[in-house]
Amino acid sequence: MSGLFGTFNIAKRGMFTQQKALDVTSHNIANANTDGYSRQRAKIETTRPFAKPSIHNVAEPGQLGTGSQIAAIERIRDSFLDFQVRSETSTLGQYESRYKFLSELESILNEPTDTGISTLMGEFFKSWQELSKHPESSNARTVAAEKSAALATTLNHTYNQLQKLKENSKELTKDAVGEINAVLDQIDRLNQEIMAVKVSGKMPNDLMDQRDLLIDGLSKKFNINIDKSNYEGINLSPEGSDLNMIRAVNNEEDVYRLSYVDGVEKVKDASGAYTGEIKIVYYKFGNKLSAENKVTVSLNVDKADVESTARGLEQSKVIWTDTKGLPVNKADGSSLGTIDNSGNFTLDAGKSFADALFEPLKGELKGLMSIDRDVERYEDELNKLAKALAWSVNAIHTKDVDAANALDFFVNKDGGTEAEITAGNIAVNEVIMKDVMKILVGQDEKSGESDNVRALAMAALKDTMLMIQEIGETINSKQDLINSAGWEVSSKGFFIKSNIKGIRMDSYFKDMVNTLGTKCQEAGRAVGNQKKLLASFEESRLSVSGVSLDEEMANLIQFQHAYQANAKIISTVDELLDVVINGLKR
């Protein structure tokens, strides 16, 4: 209605509107440094004006307005910038985890230093060269034995450090899986609360900020895809996957989580051959605190597939499960089997446990999985080096010696066979360490003091090119390695020939170190470049969603003056009403 009382109501609405706008401004200022906060804006619009002229009301020149109101409190957010930040955060998470572990790998290999494998290998060959000059000397033999033992011990230590690095990677993966599931549960609760508030007609801005902050953190673990639903709800899934981790319409049958593979055992028979059985232990949702979460799985695969199947499980270490912790197919979420009360999982016929492997495209988990593959690669290369060293030295040391008297220089300290020597178990024979005079320096045990043919052959290994790269592929024993090269005809045949397709032992190790150094440098550059790119996107997002104190102070003054002006209108209307009501008495 028009008139003084209509003017009074317009001013009253104006005061309420400016007061609410002041509240929003105050909230922005209070959260200027709150992580994840998006600035808010009061959307002011006019209230419903007087109706059109009709038979029941008087015609007026145009519609008469009735004031203003707060239509909504908007959250200023750019979803495209959110997508860019989260995508680049996933990439940064992958590069950072990779760079961290590659740097640790560099520290483990400890090259180039005076105590590294390269230096010790050089001293090893040098000691044999010195022994060839003094074949009768016990001191020279002791030096050769000790230098050999030092090299073997360093190989052992390096291998063990690589094993510990893998264990560290496993522990970080377990923690990441547990953290991911915990964050997903928080996002799910916020998702349901946000929709409930929205259904009631209000805008849950602060709750949405909390949810977005959790999603930002989650994006560092793996790449995510967000589908918006009704009432500000979301569906969340990994990029490239159709399985939802969060659903707006909450249905436990359509929601999936992650679990952690803790152990993979390749079962062998009495002869040491694979039986085809693989025993797997995984923990539901990565929670190892309760024995109830432990699940055992027994797989039967073709013997030829044991290594590849086990390696895939060891490298991924993360599987898809339903909300009860049972493995599901990553393609469609269908169950892969059943579990009994004892925690034993039985795979359904025709199903493959590998179908449950979680394979992120980016993120910290992807980086951890790639590092696991790198560590295994360097372990494998170190094992090849140890085998080449042990087999070539043993071949020279035992050549043309009666089998009953043949004494291997390098042995498997774990009690295994010569073929099973690795960088982790290579050692100098204890018999030799106790009595260095058992080292064969000449043609045989009856050689004269000047006979140094075997020592020379040992020293010559430094420049001998062997098919080290083929060990584990076409070369699986000492005899295979020697056959790939052959013996020199001269010098009584104790010198191993060079294979032009082979690599020298010191060169093989240096190539391994150089490759690692290059990878580490590339990872470091990638981290630096990615941080700059992400900072650029975050700055752009902050320019949209961040709180500017200067802007808020300007708004504060603007709303304050508007509030005062509306109050002045009320004061003026009060004076006019006083004239109308009390002035007529005079």
UniProtKB/TrEMBL annotation:
Belongs to the flagella basal body rod proteins family. It holds the Pfam family Flg_bb_rod. This is Flagellar hook-associated protein 1. InterPro entries: Flag_bb_rod_N (IPR001444), Flg_bb/hook_C_dom (IPR010930), FlgK (IPR002371), FlgK_helical (IPR053927). NCBIfam families: flgK_ends (TIGR02492). The keyword Transferase does not apply. Residues 102-239 form the Flagellar hook-associated protein FlgK helical domain. The keyword RNA-binding does not apply. Residues 9-37 form the Flagellar basal body rod protein N-terminal domain. Signal peptide: none annotated. It is found in: Bacterial flagellum; Secreted. It comes from Clostridium simiarum. Residues 541-582 form the Flagellar basal-body/hook protein C-terminal domain. Keywords: Bacterial flagellum, Cell projection, Cilium, Flagellum, Secreted.
